[in-house]
Amino acid sequence: MGAQLREYKQRISSAQTTKKITKAMELIAASRIQKAMARVRASSPFSRAVTRAVSAVATYTDIDHPLTRESENATRAAVLLLTSDRGLAGAFNSQVIKEALALAELLRSEGKEVVFYLFGRKAVGYFQFRRMVAVQEWTGDADTPSFDNAKEIADALIEAYETDAEEGGVDELHVVYNRFVSMMTQVPETVRLLPLEVVDAPAAGEGEAPAELFPLYNFEPEATDVLDALLPVYIQSRIFNALLQSAAAKQAATQKAMKSASDNAEKLIIDYTRLRNNARQAEITQQIAEIVGGADALAS
């Protein structure tokens, strides 16, 4: 009975230690997520504005440009996968990796060869463990990504996109990341960066909301030069925003996972405390019974 009490005490102590660690990690994630969300809010308007400007320019020009050029026989596609450097975030990394692999299967079913670009140690470790090949990898800055990270990734992707597929280039660029929706929800997102999907806005009919009005542009010297200048800015801004979204989603997922772990540890403490009290009461009852039995034996 004494050994059972010692075992329960050890388990209670272990659960208490675990709760202290998970509670501390939850508070750290809660403090970091506010900064991450502020960075997302600061970068999103610029990313949307650049995307809108590129779409408007590409819509109202007839030039042939890599931004909007749809390859009739696309043979290679690049997928940029964004994960975190650390775990302890529930299904944060597994769900985005699953989304990227599903996208790869879809592209392969269309007859395209898929090449991966990886950001984050979890993606790199996943590919290394399964002996899957990636063209390029970046690690170490997933929690606090900088614009330099986005520029480095964008330069590599643009270089691959501007190279012919026969020479090792790609015809399409896709990015897969976790989009921050709320503190409780992080959704895997797939975005095709290039070629840019441009859809002519239909004119508003009677009783319909007016179509979005794009500003009119004058190009000096030519629209091609404008789009050439916008191409790296567009890719950098979209990738930077995706990196910030992923970082904010990671902190939210960590906070949620650590809160769940703390609640589970508290439940274990309550359960083991109840079992320890029952075992102690059973031991006391047994000792009283032995004393009474011994006294009766002496009396007889």
Protein described:
- The protein is of the alpha/beta class and 300 residues long.
- The chain folds into 2 domains: 2-14 and 257-299; 23-198 and 215-255, 3-Layer(aba) Sandwich (Pyruvate Kinase, Chain: A, domain 1), CATH 3.40.1380.
- It is built from 5 helices and 5 strands.
- A 5-stranded mixed sheet has the order 3-2-1-4-5, sandwiched between helices.
- α3 links the parallel β2 and β3 (136-138).
- The longest helix is centred in the C-terminal third of the chain and has 77 residues, at 223-299.
- Mean pLDDT is 84; it is low at 199-210.
- It holds the Pfam family ATP-synt.
- It comes from Microbacterium amylolyticum.
- This is ATP synthase gamma chain.
Short description:
The protein is built from five helices and five strands, in the order αβαβαβαββα. The chain has 300 residues and is α/β, with parallel strands linked by helices.
The CATH architecture of the largest domain is: 3-Layer(aba) Sandwich
Count of runs of 4 or more consecutive helical residues: 5
Fraction of residues in helices?
55-70%
Instruction: Count up the domains.
Output: 2
Order of helices and strands: HEHEHEHEEH
Mean pLDDT: 84
Strand content: 5-15%
Summary tags:
300 residues, 2 domains, 5 helices, five-stranded mixed β-sheet, Pyruvate Kinase, Chain: A, domain 1, elongated, 59% helix, alpha/beta
Secondary-structure map:
Elements (H helix, E strand, L loop, with lengths): L1 H58 L16 E7 L9 H18 L3 E7 L1 H9 L6 E3 L8 H16 L9 E9 L5 E9 L28 H77 L1
Parallel strand pairs: 1-2, 1-4, 2-3
Antiparallel strand pairs: 4-5
